[in-house]
């Protein structure tokens, strides 16, 4: 049976298409890259009980995390820790008002203490020095930030003090260690208000916050 030229061309085209489809490489979907802050692995449980209710708080979300600068209600004066006044009636927290956070595995002297009683930044630093022989915590890597976040994320407050503060246009740690790491929330620190640094209890990002704001805090020990 003789095939017309047009029909022969159609048959050859179909065979070629099937051959190409068979030998064509499979396309693989790219791997999804997730934010590491959303996949934190908590190592162990903190020692002690949280005095504040372990209440699930909705995430601050994109609206509050957006990098939109808003005018601060009033400009805060530069912080001088050496001359800043501390409350005369400041007392050490009771044991039940604190939670011990385990430090690096294998280091018995490493660790932190979450103090649930809310204090201003200056008073919090004074408590860390007088009561625990340390300072507000300095954070130098993602692992430490994650460890602390695993504990403070249980609190029903939005922020806790860490040891960062702004002085002479540079951020410093209260314990004098080098400022070699930062985990700023979106829009921070450029759009922040205040000269002291607090950690968000949802996500672990850092924010500039007015130093007079009473907050729970983390001491090194």
UniProtKB/TrEMBL annotation:
<dbReference type="InterPro" id="IPR016187">
    <property type="entry name" value="CTDL_fold"/>
</dbReference>
<dbReference type="InterPro" id="IPR001304">
    <property type="entry name" value="C-type_lectin-like"/>
</dbReference>
<feature type="signal peptide">
    <location>
        <begin position="1"/>
        <end position="17"/>
    </location>
</feature>
<dbReference type="InterPro" id="IPR018378">
    <property type="entry name" value="C-type_lectin_CS"/>
</dbReference>
<dbReference type="InterPro" id="IPR050976">
    <property type="entry name" value="Snaclec"/>
</dbReference>
<keyword id="KW-0732">Signal</keyword>
<feature type="region of interest" description="Disordered">
    <location>
        <begin position="30"/>
        <end position="50"/>
    </location>
</feature>
<feature type="domain" description="C-type lectin">
    <location>
        <begin position="112"/>
        <end position="220"/>
    </location>
</feature>
<dbReference type="InterPro" id="IPR016186">
    <property type="entry name" value="C-type_lectin-like/link_sf"/>
</dbReference>
<dbReference type="InterPro" id="IPR002352">
    <property type="entry name" value="Eosinophil_major_basic"/>
</dbReference>
<protein>
    <submittedName>
        <fullName>Proteoglycan 3-like</fullName>
    </submittedName>
</protein>
<dbReference type="Pfam" id="PF00059">
    <property type="entry name" value="Lectin_C"/>
</dbReference>
<keyword id="KW-1015">Disulfide bond</keyword>
